[in-house]
Amino acid sequence: MIVNIFLLVFQGCDSDGNALEYYEKGKNIYSSQNVDEALLYFEKAVSDDPEFKQAYVMAAKSYFYLNREKTALDTLDKVLKKYPAYVDANFWAGKVYYFLNEHDRAEEYLLRVIDEDSNHIDARYLLGDIYLKRGDHARALLNYSVIEANLDIIALAKIRKGEIFAIAGQYEKAAHELSFIDRNKQVLELQVLDEAYNLLSKIEIDGESD
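The structure assignment produced for this chain is given below.
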């Protein structure tokens, strides 16, 4: 029953069982940085289900990291013809064009991302860099400011992860999560800093007692 519910709510729920199985296998292999092998499974997923948009994006990411930028863009173009507002596909198209130094094309896709998700941090960063390179400092600052405004949420997530690792007695991992707060302390809210440093003190005490 749980598996059936998962398959229904999964965003690519139109995918048949084989396509979804290939996709999940590919993701697991991709996470171990074996991109070549992962790509084979993403290609199988797309072949089994041409509507499986997540598999298209993962295949495109794999092509990109294998220095096959044109194939990555062709793959993203296929999914964007069917789903023109799909954020992940637009972002990766923008990112590929960015690294190809085709900044006008990159901007076009990244702005589509912002239209759908105004707080998309990665898209904002690339847009900020594009505008900075053009000397458009006002628009660069706007995008970088949006990123800064989201740092508190990221910091709180890091604190929660730190708490989980601390509960498990994994103090080094907990401290690593909290290092994000220390690196960004100049732009974070004081209450976020207080919570982080209180947790860090607790981790140091508990770690010594163990």
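Interim note for the steering committee: Confidence is low (pLDDT under 50) at residues 1-14. The first helix runs from residue 2 to 9.
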